[in-house]
Amino acid sequence: MCSKWDSEAGQRGGGARGEHRDGGGPQGRSVQSSVRVSPTREVSILELSLSRPLSAALTLSSPVDPSVTLCPTCSSYHRGWTCLMVYMSQNKHTEARELMCSGALLFFSHGQQNSAADLSMLVLESLEKAEVEVADELLENLAKLFSLMDPNSPERVAFVSRALKWSSGGSGKLGHPRLHQLLALTLWKEQNYCESRYHFLHSADGEGCAHMLVEYSTSRGFRSEVDMFVAQAVLQFLCLKNKSSASVVFTTYTQKHPSIEHGPPFVQPLLNFIWFLLLAVDGGKLTVFTVLCEQYQPSLRRDPMYNEYLDRIGQLFFGVPPKQTSSYGGLLGNLLSSLMGASEQEGEDSQDDSSPIELD
């Protein structure tokens, strides 16, 4: 990859390789670029990198191990940057992204976390600038970069937020379901169950969510709460109008959890309520829903959020008119608004949650 572009640069006489070769090194010499930056708009990292000296093409957050090259075919770090600059100057976005990804993976493998994170953000910037359409391979690449980042780094938070925004394709939704699934699986492996649960809610992987919840319940929860883990997940899936995943997560969880006897019916009343609720949602009869909620109030009072979720479910599936005002304010009110219908005009497949809902 790099030898091809080095050759072409050398033939131009004043290209990137020629400047790197003459004068004893890359310091202080600029890579030639056809990119013109308008002073009236914000300058991106990529555009800045094309107009700066090669040694400062990107201000990395930590010292770079000189043995690390940007890609396996480049003999040095700076030659790798030369290849990248040539690709970008000729709008070879695909080739540049491949080089950025391989460079980021190499930095991660050498423990260069900050430098790898910088390159990962450049990958996202390239996807945005080139208006690349979402594809499974790209989502898997982004998820791979995410999985290698330090879980406690602020760069990881910024990366995942930007990746989800790009994957939404400008639709205003909260990211592609496949990317949410991949992120959820990574967070599950890290035993970050709360964040994993949030991303599972926005994926189509009800079965994976159920298996994660079984592990979460058995490792972190009380035995008396085994029914509450799945009940909250089912109610939130229904609030997001995802009946299919709600049914799958309930069936899988109740079959796989070692503390739940096979049913239905179940020993735990709350599980019976959820089972009846899923049947009622399919039927759509308001009287059945109303009687069900009344009969199971003792179980529903175990968590004050249950009735709030059920109010929303009543609106979505049974034609119950929405409340005029919310009885909650502040942070809790914001969480409810984001989960339970801040945007009424979304379509049947809308998923309009914008912040994680943690288990109590």
What this model shows, in words?
This protein is mostly helical and 360 residues long. It has a domain at 1-132. The protein has 18 helices and no strands. Helix 4 (77-89) runs antiparallel to helix 5, helix 7 (136-148) runs parallel beside helix 9 and helix 9 runs antiparallel to helix 10 (193-201).
Summarize the amount of helix as a percent range.
55-70%
Mean pLDDT: 77
- Distinct helical segment count: 18
Going by helix content, strand content and strand pairing, the class is mainly alpha
What is the element string, with H for helices and E for strands? HHHHHHHHHHHHHHHHHH
Calculate Rg over CA atoms. Answer: 26 Å
For the largest beta-sheet, the strand count, sense and barrel status come to:
none
Strand content: under 5%
Spans of at least 5 consecutive residues whose pLDDT stays below 50 are 1-76, 342-360
Family: Belongs to the GET4 family.
Keywords: Cytoplasm, Transport
Subunit structure: Component of the BAG6/BAT3 complex, at least composed of BAG6, UBL4A and GET4/TRC35. Interacts with BAG6; the interaction is direct and localizes BAG6 to the cytosol. Interacts with GET3.
InterPro entries: GET4, TPR-like_helical_dom_sf
Task: Give short descriptive properties of this protein.
360 residues; mainly alpha; 18 helices; disordered N terminus; disordered C terminus; GET4; transport; Golgi to ER traffic protein 4 homolog isoform X1; cytoplasm
